[in-house]
Write a structure and sequence with these properties.
The complex is a heterodimer of chains A (995) and B (267).
Chain A: E1 2-9, H1 16-29, E2 35-45, H2 50-60, E3 66-70, E4 80-86, H3 93-106, E5 115-125, H4 129-140, E6 146-152, H5 153-158, H6 185-194, H7 201-213, H8 220-229, H9 232-235, H10 237-240, E7 242-246, E8 253-256, H11 258-278, E9 283-285, E10 292-295, E11 300-308, H12 310-315, H13 317-333, E12 340-350, H14 366-384, E13 388-395, E14 404-414, E15 416-417, E16 420-421, E17 432-437, H15 447-450, H16 469-484, E18 490-493, H17 498-506, E19 513-516, H18 529-534, E20 540-545, H19 550-559, E21 564-570, E22 575-580, E23 583-589, H20 590-595, E24 601-605, H21 622-630, H22 639-642, E25 653-655, E26 658-659, E27 665-666, E28 670-673, E29 681-688, H23 697-715, E30 723-729, H24 742-763, E31 767-773, E32 777-780, E33 783-786, E34 790-799, E35 816-820, H25 831-839, H26 862-877, E36 883-885, H27 891-903, E37 906-910, H28 915-918, H29 922-927, E38 934-938, H30 943-949, E39 955-962, E40 966-971, E41 974-980, H31 981-990
Parallel strand pairs in A: 7-24, 12-13, 19-22, 30-31, 37-40
Antiparallel strand pairs in A: 1-2, 1-3, 2-5, 4-5, 4-6, 7-8, 9-10, 10-11, 11-14, 12-14, 15-16, 17-20, 17-21, 18-20, 19-21, 22-23, 25-28, 26-27, 28-29, 29-34, 30-34, 32-33, 35-38, 35-39, 36-38, 37-39, 40-41
Helix pairs in contact in A: 1-4, 2-3, 11-24, 13-14, 14-16, 21-31, 23-24
Chain B: E1 5-10, H1 17-26, E2 30-35, H2 36-40, E3 53-56, H3 70-79, H4 81-89, E4 93-97, H5 99-107, E5 122-125, E6 133-141, E7 155-162, E8 166-169, H6 171-179, E9 183-188, E10 209-213, E11 219-222, H7 238-244, H8 254-266
Classes of the chains: A alpha+beta (995), B alpha/beta (267).
């Protein structure tokens, strides 16, 4: 039977959650709600007596801050009550914790199937039912995963307590079906579409022919398993395709796999050069495991992986994003024999949260997506006890259709684990297939294939998972103990594709596996075998456990109250053999599973495009222009949201994400220790700039790599140990009816890869891991919106002694200001041009870039740039550099502004001291985004030594740090910028202060 | 007793074990990380009362679901309370930081007036500005407080990292905490006086309460994290302090752990 508990803050005490909702309602919906009170509802579905239920209530209520009741808590009249509850089958972590509290209080285990279902009630005053419904659907609930109940006070009083629970009613396990593939091509295409397989006709044919030669049709288990193993998400077909690249005035070029040619190709070249130079390699494990592994010190390697979770975040921002962060945590944890997690990174691309127009039907408002994504990654990271190292946001209306949600995790992998090399793992024939962690439900079924297709109204609600960081943390704690005791021989995570992917991948070593899906623990009965195999239910790892260790492994799992189940055995049979309750439901040759998919041939046609240059006159008042730039969404402070993320748990954070006198300016790079008791550290930075892609993705790719590396140098990282991660988020580049410009988008991809290839080799910064997400388009109500080609380069550097790290804030009056690196007229894709476009009242054409785009996109001149970086690194190592900032978006002016704001000091700079600046129009000199530049300050006494080290580079002393907090810049003999630091900080902090 | 053992209770979503262990080691103690479930089922090498020092660390036990610390405290109340009381009778020292402080208050260990360590008389409610927030704050310590953990400390900067830190007590309890100098630490404003103003007071605690102790001064709970200021370069402005010569030899937070360890070594 069901008992209902309602718990609310004591009358008289504040209800911050209610106050926050009320404020949001007034702000976003302009509904003058008078007051909002909230309460938590627990519906306990278990064999409890009323007396026991009362004991539980007494235990759950905080006697000082709360009061509660069994059934209904009458706390005085209200206008309308909105009750928000999870739909059946949606993860309810709070309910799980409540179940534990019930069992502890009663001192007995509840029956299998007993559960606590949570809900939240919002009691609103001064609002009618219609308005309350609007509040419910726009702010409080997401219909994809939640139900809403509305009632007036009278109706609520007049009725008994609502004891309904969102229990998934169990039904019989659906039988395994055989899929008839003997039909026409049209039939095959129809099967792929209706079953959400996202398989091409060629792939459907290959599957048909394979099973035909075996004289049978595939089962639904086999077809689903192949569909997800061959999905773009898991197989990266586009990066492995054979590409024919055409460009005006050049012979067509055939590229066999962008990945092998440009990504792995670059890394192998860098590694070869490194071996020749030093006789050894610091790349421990790249590209074949769940994350890249590089050498760090005698105790630990460093592990790094960045992922995206875009489509789920578009449907359910909170659930999609929290799944993204706890999901990527499992990558380092599933690398080698398992890494300890050290730090998270996050970065988001959104449409403007200030958008006035309603988004197309089926899309959420960008402000709601932004709030939900932040809340999800905040909870996921904080509750996992992992600090964040980097966080950034980029805004462009082309992210209205699909937001980009990047989440990454750095880990440390012990060099030796239980007497074995920590980075090596191997499942052997005879090892047991073990699943540990959460249970399997319908969550996230088809996630892999779904994210490999454009987002449209037919998006399945099962595609949404909701991560549960606490369940995962408890699983990690248990598995870390098991790891150190040497209880397993291999480990990998269950993410996209679930068991079919984790077991299928692990079985490649031994050459096969046989599992029985009936042995997998389910959240509720009634899942079809193929659903069990594909479910992306979170918080699960798959392990290979030697038979002689299984008892110890399972015993430890019991002690830690973590569920672990033996599903089968790894074999050398050459087959993935799946049965259900002893009945074979799938038997696929490993060779066909992993190599059976037909090669893809893709056309790529590059045609340079011309974009408008600014028409209007240059701004007269450059001080005002600077303040305008500082308040732009893409340049302003995001501190208000970022402070909700923990950045120093574990006690290893040395240069924090926010630095300066008031810790309110983002660091160029952050610096962390890898363990207590050592001063050796690692450095995190990144580069991302989709705005350059419109003109040329080759320049875009080189610019973001340069920015990531430049930030490392500024912080004091060693240039000999910088590893880079590449995350591509592209619009669909496959030429088709729906994508008539696919060949051009493919050419953009080719050029981006080539740009990375050329510069990673020139800089000696290997790519050690990466990920691609290639279908970032949405078609809603007939409107297609595609993201601009976006490449995130995440850099992982190393520093011998963290106390040598340098931050960007100006340190002392009298310090000398230097500008390193030449400035050119490179305003294409610049924030300055978009600011001019806004000034001129221009808006982006449908799905197009915001004007002005311009054409002179920043390039990189590798040889002199790297020479300059090396010289600066030497100066930093010698303790000669007091601050270093990187001109990036917004150019030199923004770098000077950030350094001044961070130090709450001023600067007197004469930019005519730099001939290249003097030669440019003042506004171009200030806002051009040329790469390879650094603004450094140096104590007067150290100037000679500094200048001597930099003598081979473009290094110009342009001014001095002043005690008066004012930025003054002279150009062509006139003061062009003269702004108080306090005015800059207000502009910088105002835009997102309350959003 | 030269190297006192410190019991650091871990697991179930807690996450500050590494820095807390580092802190007690630097302070000359011998920290032992023990999973709560091992304490409950008796499979831990030692029992709770065998330790002179007990640390309730920061983190998200059970995700702060049902109120920070409550599910975790509930486990202890029903399955470990007698050991806990014996530990207190034997004069044990306990430090609760953040989630650990919340747990101690939820259990009734703090404020522990009149020797009653079972009845919750206070709570750490959700911050006036909702949500978790990580930012450094300035604290002032009451020199008249009996707290053994904060002897000789007048002021300290530490990171505040919580979503539920607003200290509320019944008026009578609040009066006695004030009168008996059991309010050990208060949030300071820019003018150097205790403040109710956000962000200097991150949660809206009345009387700017950041931490309290029991009448014996041996049980101490604090919302901000001394375990996060062990090294000079933990301070957010260390690169500036290095230049103006104000960079300390060691992180200020370490003093709290040194105090606890030397007290345990004496008794």
């Amino acid at each position: 039977m069901v008992h209902r508990l309602e718990i609310a803050p004591r009358s008289g005490l504040r209800d911050p959650r209610g106050d926050a909702v009320a404020a949001t309602v007034r702000d976003i919906l302009a509904i003058p709600v008078a007051r909002v009170r909230t309460r938590d509802v627990y519906r306990i579905d278990a064999d409890l007596t009323d007396g026991e239920a009362f004991r539980v209530l007494h235990e759950l209520v905080d006697p000082v801050g709360q009061h509660g009741a069994l059934g209904k808590l009458d706390d005085g009249p209200f206008g309308v009550a909105v009750t928000v509850a999870a739909k059946p089958g949606v993860t309810d972590p709070v309910g799980k914790s409540a179940r534990v509290a019930v069992e502890d209080t009663l001192g007995r285990r509840l029956a299998e199937g007993a559960a606590v279902y949570t809900a939240t009630m919002y009691l609103m005053d001064g609002i009618d039912v219609a308005a309350a419904e609007l509040v419910a659907t726009r702010i409080l609930a997401n219909p994809v995963i939640q139900t809403v109940r509305l009632e007036t006070y009278e109706a609520w009083r007049g009725s008994g307590p609502d004891l309904a629970i969102p229990k998934v009613e169990a039904h019989a396990t659906p039988p395994v079906a055989t899929i008839d593939l003997s039909g026409t091509d049209a039939d095959l295409a129809a099967i792929s579409k209706t079953k959400l397989l996202a398989l091409t006709l060629a792939e459907m044919r290959a599957i048909r022919d394979h099973f035909r030669s075996a004289g049978r049709n595939p089962t639904d288990v086999e077809l689903e398993c192949l569909a997800q193993t061959w999905s773009e998400h898991c197989k990266h077909k586009i990066f492995n395709a054979t590409v024919t690249y055409r460009e005006p005035g050049r012979e067509p070029e055939t590229i066999r796999s962008l990945f092998k040619t440009f990504i792995r190709g670059a890394t192998e070249a860098v590694d070869r050069a490194e071996r020749e130079r030093t006789g050894r390699s610091w790349l421990v494990s790249v590209f074949h495991d769940n994350a890249g592994v590089v050498a760090f010190d005698d105790h630990h390697h460093l592990v790094y992986k960045v992922e995206t979770h875009n489509s789920p975040s578009a449907l359910d921002p909170y659930g999609g994003a929290i799944t993204g962060i706890v999901g990527v945590n499992r990558d380092p944890f599933g690398t080698g024999l398992g890494a300890d997690l050290l730090a998270n990174v996050w970065g988001y691309c959104f449409a403007s949260p200030f958008r006035r127009a309603e988004p197309p039907r089926g899309l959420l408002h960008p402000r709601r997506i932004r709030d939900g994504v932040h809340a999800g990654v905040i909870d996921g990271g904080n509750q996992s006890g992992v600090p964040y190292g980097r966080g950034w946001e980029i805004f462009d209306d082309r992210f209205l259709g699909k937001p980009l949600v990047f989440c990454g995790t750095v880990g440390r992998l012990p060099v030796t684990i239980a007497g074995r090399p920590g980075h090596e793992k191997e499942a052997r024939p005879g090892d047991l297939v073990v699943m540990a962690g959460g249970r399997i439900g319908a969550d996230g079924i088809h996630g892999a294939t779904f994210s490999s297709a454009a987002l449209d109204e037919s998006a399945p609600i099962q595609a949404v998972q909701i991560g549960d960081p606490i369940t995962q943390k408890r699983m990690f704690d248990f598995l870390t103990e098991a790891r150190d005791q040497g209880l397993y021989s291999s480990i990998t995570d269950n993410g996209a594709g679930g068991l079919s992917s984790s077991v299928g991948e692990m079985a490649r070593g031994p050459g096969g596996a046989e599992i029985d899906l009936a042995k997998a623990p389910l959240k509720y009965a009634g899942l079809a075998p193929w659903e069990i195999l594909l479910s992306e239910a979170q918080e699960r790892m798959t392990l290979a456990v030697p038979p002689e260790r299984i008892d110890a492994f399972l015993a430890l799992a019991r002690r830690r109250e973590v569920e672990a189940s033996v599903l089968g055995t790894f074999t050398g049979s050459g087959f993935l053999h799946v049965s259900y309750a002893g009945e074979t439901v799938a038997r696929i040759a490993m060779s066909f599973l992993h190599e059976g998919d037909p090669d893809l041939d893709l056309p790529a046609v590059w045609e340079p495009k011309r974009f408008d240059e600014p028409a209007g006159p240059a701004p007269e008042d450059l001080s005002a222009a600077l303040l305008g730039m500082l308040s732009r969404l893409n340049l302003c402070s995001g501190e208000v949201k970022a402070r909700h993320y923990d950045h120093e748990v574990k006690g290893l954070t040395v240069v924090k994400p926010w630095v300066g006198v008031n810790s309110d300016v983002p660091a160029e790079a952050t610096v962390f220790l890898a363990r207590h008791g050592s001063r050796r550290g690692y450095v995190l930075s990144e580069g991302v700039n989709p705005f350059y892609s419109d003109t040329d993705t080759y320049a875009m790719a080189q610019s973001v790599l340069d920015e990531a590396v430049r930030r490392q140098v500024c912080a004091g990282a060693s240039l000999d140990r910088i590893a880079a991660l590449d995350n591509f988020c592209w619009p669909d580049p496959v030429q088709s009816e729906g994508t008539p410009d696919g060949a051009y988008k493919m050419a953009q991809l080719v050029r981006a890869c080539r740009g990375l290839y050329d510069l990673t080799r020139a800089y000696g910064t290997p790519l050690v891991s990466g990920k691609d997400s290639m279908k970032n388009d949405s078609i809603m109500g007939g409107v297609k919106i595609s993201v601009p080609p976006t490449l995130l380069v995440s850099a992982l550097g190393q520093i011998d002694d963290v106390t040598k790290a340098v931050t960007l804030d100006l340190k002392s009056p009298g310090d000398l200001v230097y500008l390193l690196g030449p400035t050119r007229d490179e305003t294409g894709g610049s924030e300055y041009f978009r600011w001019l476009g806004a000034r001129d009242g221009l808006a982006a054409s449908d799905g197009g870039p915001a004007p002005y785009v311009g054409n002179k996109v920043p390039r990189v001149d590798p040889v002199p740039t790297m020479a300059c970086y090396r010289a600066l690194a030497a100066a930093t190592a010698g303790g000669l550099v007091r601050s270093a900032a990187t001109p990036g978006k917004g150019g030199l002016a923004l770098a000077l502004a950030r350094a001044a704001m961070a130090g709450r000091l001023g600067m007197e700079v004469d930019l005519d001291r730099a001939p290249d600046l003097e030669a440019l129009p003042p506004e171009i000199a200030l806002f051009s985004e040329s790469n390879g530049r650094i603004v450094a300050t140096v104590a007067p006494g150290d100037a000679p030594a500094f200048e001597a080290l930099l003598s081979g580079s473009a290094c110009r002393r342009i001014g001095v740090v002043t005690a008066e907090p004012r930025l003054r810049a002279t150009l062509r003999g006139r003061i062009r910028v003269d702004v108080a630091v306090s005015d800059m900080t207000s502009a910088f902090q105002g835009t997102l202060a309350h959003v | 007793m030269s190297e006192p053992r410190v019991l650091i209770v871990t697991g179930l979503g807690l996450n500050c074990e590494a820095e807390t262990a580092a802190a007690f080691s630097l302070a000359g103690a011998r920290p032992e990380l023990v999973h709560l479930l091992d304490l409950l089922d008796g499979s831990a090498p030692r029992k709770l009362p065998d330790y002179p020092i007990l640390a309730f660390i920061g983190g998200f036990a059970f995700g702060d679901h049902l109120g920070a610390g409550s599910v975790f405290a509930n486990k202890i109340r029903w399955r470990l309370y007698d050991d806990l009381l014996r530990f207190i009778e034997k004069g044990g020292l306990a430090l609760g930081v953040c989630n650990g402080f919340q747990t101690m208050v939820r259990l009734g260990l703090l404020p522990g007036l009149d020797g009653d360590y079972r009845t919750p008389r206070a709570t750490l409610a959700p911050n006036d500005r909702p949500g978790y927030r990580d930012a450094w704050v300035r604290l002032e310590f009451d020199p008249g407080s009996p707290c053994v953990w904060t002897k000789g400390i007048d002021r300290m900067e530490l990171p505040s990292r919580h979503g539920e830190g607003k200290f509320l007590a019944e008026p009578e309890t609040a009066r006695r905490l004030e009168r008996d100098h059991l309010v050990v630490a208060r949030y300071l404003g820019p003018d150097g006086a205790p403040t109710m103003e956000w962000p200097w007071n991150p949660n809206g605690s009345p009387d700017a309460v950041a931490g309290i102790c029991d009448p014996t001064g041996r049980l101490f709970g604090l919302m901000p994290h001394p375990d996060a200021y062990l090294y000079p370069f933990h301070h957010p402005r260390w690169t500036r302090m290095r230049l103006d010569g104000t960079l300390p030899e060691e992180g200020a937070g370490l003093k709290i752990f040194r105090n606890g360890v030397s007290e345990a070594a004496r008794s």
